[in-house]
Amino acid sequence: MHYQAKEINAHFVSDNDISFQLYDGKHIPFSDHSFETIMTVNTIYFWQNPKTYLSELCRVLRPNGNFILTFATKKFMKGLSFAKHGFTLYELEDVKKLIKTTGFTISETKELEEVVQSKDGSMVHREFVVVKLLK
């Protein structure tokens, strides 16, 4: 994925101050307070230790920084055959419990739905959540 991200977005990387970093998924290789905003989409399912990882995200985020966490709901993901292998599934309430153990506060949540085309060509009703957190 790292290689593909760099390849697909090469024109952005060469023209701007944008880069893609590969790391171990546990320790974010940046100093404290490095970022104003952090956003992640559909990665929470793979965090080995969500509480520890949220603490790492909090560490690299500046004071008063924003963290946007987006994920598809457990209800939706259960219907996907591949999600049975290596995914930890969440509903909004599960994520709220995790957030309580961190240095973040929830400023806004949105539970959204959309109809999208799946890889097999069928139309799928996808439920997802966007959580805006503040440090």
From TrEMBL:
Q: Does the UniProt entry include the keyword Methyltransferase?
A: yes
Q: Keywords in UniProt for this one?
A: Methyltransferase, Transferase
* Record keyword Transit peptide present: no
Q: A Gene Ontology MF term for this entry?
A: S-adenosylmethionine-dependent methyltransferase activity
**Domain of life where this protein originates:** Bacteria
Any one Gene Ontology BP term: methylation
Q: Which Pfam families match?
A: Methyltransf_11 (PF08241)
Ranges for domain Methyltransferase type:
11-69
Q: Which InterPro entries match?
A: Methyltransf_11, SAM-dependent_MTases_sf
**Which protein is depicted?**
Methyltransferase family protein
Lineage, opening ranks = Bacteria, Pseudomonadati, Bacteroidota, Flavobacteriia, Flavobacteriales
